[in-house]
## 1
Amino acid sequence: MNLLAIESSCDETSAAVLVDNQIRSNVIAAQLIHEQYGGVVPELASRAHQQHIVPVVERALADAKIPKTALDAIAFTRGPGLLGSLLVGASFAKALALGLNIPLIEVNHMQAHVLAHFIGDSNPAFPFLCLTVSGGHTQIVRVRAPLDMEVIGQTQDDAVGEAFDKSAKLLNLPYPGGPLIDRYARQGNPLAFRFPLAEMPGLDFSFSGIKTAILYFLRDQIKTNPQFIDQNLPDICASIQYTLVQMLLTKLKRAARETGIRDIAIAGGVSANSGLREALQKTGQELGWRVFIPAFEYCTDNAAMIAMAAKFKFDQSDFVGQDVSPLPRMSF
Ligand code: KG4
Ligand code: ZN
């Protein structure tokens, strides 16, 4: 079975080829244009997808050594994401499926982040919990089967990736600031500064308060020392990262306790964060969890995870017709 998958939900154009159960190629074209605007500009993102999609798909097929005519199905991200970005991937996938007369498979981007754990040999057993943390989402998902999952906790306001990126902006770091906070945090003291931990009921999260707390904290410090940020960047980053990771782990521990599930995974862009990866390993050892952390290349947006999710749908002949259209707020 040869499957081509396309991901274009935000600002990465990606194509991957899966042959039987193996990912054979995973090509990702990032869009650097957004950096100068401090965030993703939707109109520029769809234009860049339009430019990248043909070369990215051709490269993915060439890397996998699979000719177009040998494909058995085409998968694409239907949502959630930016409408203009999703439209490029969806239209391209539909046209190619039509031209080759092969089935079309729609994939939910957030489900695909979870199913990235089935790339390779170390897979969680069902049921497992997945903390999916990205620039747009923060979810605790109970996964009963590949295509049977339920969100049991989520953010009521900002996503944790947004909290990283907005905090970085307050520190005058370029977009996306999450990876930079991670880098500076490695040289800092996580207990140097304290930020309040928001209390949310149940398994839900809130990250808007922490952003305001950081804003006021920096404003007060800068009043007495205008060089405060420059002089304390590693400690500030380590303290912010520590706080955000604690907020995530508190709820993940509660979810594991309440469900009795001990196979615990993380997914999404923020699962690349070294503080979160270390804290999860440590908590897992303390509580007897089996912990699953994706390889870096499958944390942030990529088409390999779309291919993996599509494989489960292909096995059930779960195809869509040519009248399918993107769902920017797609849920599951
Ligand atoms: O999953 P993803 O690539 O795209 C979305 O679907 O949103 O996640 C992107 C998010 C951004 O907010 C980015 O700052 C964050 O993941 N991120 C990180 C790290 N790497 C990516 N945040 C903290 N530490 C990192 N190392
Ligand atoms: Zn994502």
Note: The beta strands are 2-7, 12-19, 22-30, 73-79, 104-108, 128-133, 138-145, 148-154, 263-267, 290-292.
## 2
Amino acid sequence: NPEPFTEVTENAQLFADERVRVLLPLPLGEAYDYALPPGMTVEAGSIVEVPLGQRRVTGVVWDATPAGGKVAAEKLKPVIRVFDVPPLPEVGRRFVDWVAAYYLAEPGTVLKMSLSAPAALEPPVPTVGYLRGEGDPEALGLRLTPARRRVLSVLADGPPRPAAELAREAGVSAGVIKGLADAGVLERVAMYDAPGFEVPADAPEGPALSESQAAAARSLSAKVRDGFSVTLIDGVTGSGKTEVYFEAVKAALRQGRQVLVLLPEIALSAQWLERFAARFGVAPAVWHSECTQAQRRATWRAVARGEAPVVVGARSALFLPYPDLGLVVVDEEHDQAFKQEDGVPYHARDMAVVRARLGGFPAVLVSATPSLESLENVRAGRYDSVHLPERHAGAQLPDIEAIDMRADRPPPIQGHGQSFIAPSLRDAVGETLAAGEQALLFLNRRGYAPLTLCRACGHRLQCPNCTAWLVEHRLVDSLQCHHCGYMARVPQSCPECGAEHSFAACGPGVERLHEEVKALFPEARVALMASDTVTGPAAAARFIESVQNREIDLLIGTQIVAKGNHFPYLTLVGVVDADLGLAGGDLRAGERTYQLLHQVAGRAGRAERPGRVMLQTYEPVHEVIQALVSGDRDRFLAVEAENRRKAGMPPFARLAALILSSPDEAAVDAVARALARAAPQGEGIEVMGPAPAPLAILRGRHRRRMLLRTRRDIAPQPLLRDWLRQVEVPGKVRLSVDVDPYHF
Ligand code: ADP
Ligand code: ZN
């Protein structure tokens, strides 16, 4: 990681000058100068409204010392107003600058992520909330219908709720609520923000820790007092990593500092939230893309005022305006979800470390299958590590076996057709269900079938906008492109040869597996969990609850079931296609597949019940399958690391990708050639490509990729800046830079 550009000091000097520099959350190269009208005072970080052309834009007073400015003072437009919210702290502004410089993005584009709750800036406008009132429904002669009863039970033990939220929670229409209020059973109150997040006075004691857990917790808690550090908590699933970092959270809270916990799938993390609330006696503030505007606004304000002691969020929570962040935890640090691919392509784990360094506090990275990047940082002494080698209370790790699909072929099922479940897995599912336990069949593929082809001529249905096959989704009766969202019906006749009703599904998706399982186990209660069948946090929470309450026997799911949830009665995991992630040949495929399958396997047998995991594979000797079966993680990672070192790839070198795209293929190629001619050269510097990007056509745009590779001790940013300055890119070609690309 490169060095921070500036020392961070609190420097909130008030301006008396009549000129201020304001950074706007727009893709602009730099901050603009504005005039400060007489009588208006601002400080560095003040959030202001300024004119830009015909528009009014919200921006941030950026520098402590305004530069001389190119525009004459009398030509400057005046600041319109200053918002009544705390200024964006110095460290938050330096973080925006740092991220922008590292990823070659405009600072304004990065700032936009910090101002992501515009409503939070306005003085709060009350909304109407409902409380249980004095009126007794019986006395008022109001019949207590089930719907009315549900409304009252939701309100029985809670703060006031706005109508929409109440209606959703109780599962009633707005009319039911209005009726109760008009009758006087509910009382209307004015609500400003969502309920606040209190500081836990002192967290209740956690469980008594084992010796190795206690040692890890002590070392982390000590670091909270010692400024910047990075520690990797490396321990098997169920070893108590969460209990251990909770101790560090407690230590930071005791010092009165804020804590940020990043989770890869926060919308699916109801269990984590419950566990946090049970441990600390308060719910943390939650921040992710599915939060409502009202929630965002409440959280943003609470964070800015220092009133949210703990924030748990997705990667964008890094950009909230913390005045006094004192600890950041990145749970499941290896997870791909931390890499943002759109907008500014940044890696939230890496930027969490940068944020910790700028703020002078510890970062804690947590995983059972750490990334090669983090392990290399530990090996090289840049990061510390603590190990938790055993599952808590002697719980057994699941027994993992491979099913060789070449020998154990699934025979067709009578009256159903093709099968994708080997006889041995079928038997194991049967035994599990007979024992009253639960089974999970994992297949990381949404929809019914990944490929649809014409039986007469072999024509395959492809997306008209992308180099990708269309995926059949039978539940919604359509073909879909998973890259651009294109949708169509399965055609009646083949567009190529004209044959009627000739299309056949090839290969399984989870919907097809669901169908097969229902034919095989007609008695079992089967449920399907994929991102398009279980949408949103509430649906996910209900789903997970029904598994825990044993209302489901057999679970079919994509990777969203793999994340974090704990199912005590789940004892069998069958991975239907363990080879799936290994195809395609990107250099991270082995590491990623290992991490995913290890995490899926960890769903089996977490309580007293031992678990069993079966991996269906056509390549049982593959090193990833072997590593899972033998449980020899460290040997596998050592081999992977050695391969990367030999290939001269990250973490042993630095990479930056340039992606060029345009609807006009010739224009893309022309820019690619010009870039190739101007490519940086030198010892330890190499440019690969141009070559078709992994998705050669996406949304109708032709894509080319070039990779800049440098030795670890050479920063690619100055080379990239120089390089890009030399090449003219016409308007119809889009050039994006991805520093530290996830795929290579
Ligand atoms: P990890 O984060 O490594 O998967 P957890 O912290 O979630 O592990 O622990 C797994 C389970 O074991 C949880 O239910 C947790 O409450 C329990 N557990 C872990 N350590 C202890 C302990 N020392 N005493 C009691 N329960 C523990
Ligand atoms: Zn498409």
Note: Confidence is low (pLDDT under 50) at residues 1-12.
